[in-house]
């Protein structure tokens, strides 16, 4: 997944010759995983057809406040369009439109939507070199940036007039790269490396049987997604799980046993800023693993177990500058048990959840947590989706790593 994956991009097209490039621009946004809607000024349709852009974006293209469909008139709500978008891009942005944006003129659907947008607004000017250098255009560019809009500078090259100079709209691939880089630079976890464990471990009894638990890995995977969405480079060490992850910032390392998870954690731990151990690691494993399938007998079967290595404690012993976060799933005496783990394992935070709480624990889509820090300060949260819980956890971490 790219930086723009899952983002909603509203592309505004004005009446400049560079409008012909917007077909490729839409295609690149779609290829990056974004959803695209297009608004055109009426005059821009002289340069590229709505049909082309609708086909590429897989969404209707809007250009007027009202559209006729059979006997009905449909209202294109500029407020809804502005609120829908995660990003608004006006490209090409002509001198005429720049001036109207500056003055708050609202004489078409695109400008009305711009004035309603709550998201970051990017604009890519395109005009002839004398127009681009004109004092009124320079004033518009400066004013729009003062408003908080983000300029994607025009480049130099051959213009539609035949002249060569500044005023050429940035190429579509450079516009997409500009927006991606701008998004990345503003992500709070950009440059941070985070190790996250998730899921169960399986401890072999024989070639076909194992000791495991009911952990689905959902909580750890949601934490990984949230951290990656905020710019972190994530090393997700996952036990056997059906959960999927598709994010270019997440490196998934698959393991099965507690020993494999231990080895993987120690391989990455020294180079990370934060470690969040959300996996449900087996506390015991069979001391002797049968090389052949154990046959069923009438007599009772006794399997001798031995403790697995305590991954969290071992990382706490090696901790230097890392923020170390553990999980505690308890059934009784929850708070005191969690506090004890903080001390014994040298943790900075522990995420406590109790099987006594309905909707918390394994194999659910919800969780109810209490975050406890090394000073035993407690912060309880209500029952929420695991996605929302992951945001609460990452927000607490952000307070400590920024």
From TrEMBL:
**Assigned protein family:** In the N-terminal section; belongs to the HFCD (homo-oligomeric flavin containing Cys decarboxylase) superfamily.
Keyword field: Decarboxylase, Flavoprotein, FMN, Ligase, Lyase, Magnesium, Metal-binding, Multifunctional enzyme
Q: What is its EC number?
A: 4.1.1.36, 6.3.2.5
Give the source's domain of life in one word.
Bacteria
Q: What is this protein called?
A: Coenzyme A biosynthesis bifunctional protein CoaBC
UniProt function note: Catalyzes two sequential steps in the biosynthesis of coenzyme A. In the first step cysteine is conjugated to 4'-phosphopantothenate to form 4-phosphopantothenoylcysteine. In the second step the latter compound is decarboxylated to form 4'-phosphopantotheine. Catalyzes two steps in the biosynthesis of coenzyme A. In the first step cysteine is conjugated to 4'-phosphopantothenate to form 4-phosphopantothenoylcysteine, in the latter compound is decarboxylated to form 4'-phosphopantotheine.
- Read off the lineage from the record: Bacteria, Pseudomonadati, Bacteroidota, Flavobacteriia, Flavobacteriales
Sorted alphabetically, which InterPro entries does this protein's record hold? CoaB-like_sf, CoaBC, DNA/pantothenate-metab_flavo_C, Flavin_trans-like, Flavoprotein
Write down the species: Tenacibaculum piscium
Q: Which Gene3D superfamilies match?
A: CoaB-like, Flavin prenyltransferase-like
Q: Which residues bind CTP?
A: 283, 293, 327, 341, 345
């Amino acid at each position: 997944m790219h930086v723009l994956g899952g983002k909603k991009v509203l592309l505004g097209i004005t009446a400049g010759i560079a409008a012909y490039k917007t077909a490729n621009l839409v295609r690149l946004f779609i290829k990056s995983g974004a959803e695209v809607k297009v608004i055109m000024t009426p005059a821009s349709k002289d340069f590229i057809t709505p049909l082309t852009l609708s086909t590429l974006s897989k969404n209707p293209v809007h250009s007027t406040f009202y559209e006729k469909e059979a006997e009905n008139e449909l209202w294109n709500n500029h407020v809804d369009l502005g609120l829908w978008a995660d990003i608004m891009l006006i490209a090409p942005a002509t001198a005429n439109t720049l001036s109207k944006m500056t003055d708050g003129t609202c004489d078409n659907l695109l400008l009305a939507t711009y004035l309603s947008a709550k998201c970051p607004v990017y604009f890519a000017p395109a005009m002839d070199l004398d127009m681009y250098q004109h004092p009124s255009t320079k004033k518009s560019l400066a004013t729009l940036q003062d408003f908080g809009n983000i300029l994607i500078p025009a480049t130099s090259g051959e213009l539609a007039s035949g002249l060569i100079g500044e005023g050429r709209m940035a190429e579509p691939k450079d516009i997409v790269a500009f927006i991606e880089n701008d998004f990345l630079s503003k992500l709070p976890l950009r440059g941070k490396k985070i190790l996250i464990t998730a899921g169960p471990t399986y401890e072999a009894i024989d070639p076909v049987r194992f000791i495991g638990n009911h952990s689905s890995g959902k909580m750890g995977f949601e934490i990984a997604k949230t951290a990656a969405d905020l710019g972190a480079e994530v090393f997700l060490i996952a036990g056997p799980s059906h959960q999927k992850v598709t994010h270019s910032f997440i490196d998934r390392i698959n393991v099965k046993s507690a020993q494999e998870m231990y080895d993987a954690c120690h391989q990455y731990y020294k180079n990370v800023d934060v470690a969040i151990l959300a996996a449900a690691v087996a506390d015991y494993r069979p001391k002797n693993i049968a090389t052949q399938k154990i046959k069923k007998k009438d007599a009772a079967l006794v399997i001798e177990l031995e403790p697995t290595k305590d991954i969290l404690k071992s990382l706490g012993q090696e901790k230097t500058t890392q923020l170390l976060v553990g999980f505690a799933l308890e059934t009784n005496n929850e708070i005191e048990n969690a506090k004890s783990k903080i001390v014994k394992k040298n943790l900075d935070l522990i995420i406590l959840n109790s099987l006594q709480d309905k909707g918390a624990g394994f194999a659910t889509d919800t969780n109810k947590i209490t975050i406890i820090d090394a000073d035993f300060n407690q912060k309880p949260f209500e029952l929420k989706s695991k996605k929302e819980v992951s945001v609460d956890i990452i927000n607490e971490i952000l307070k400590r790593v920024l």
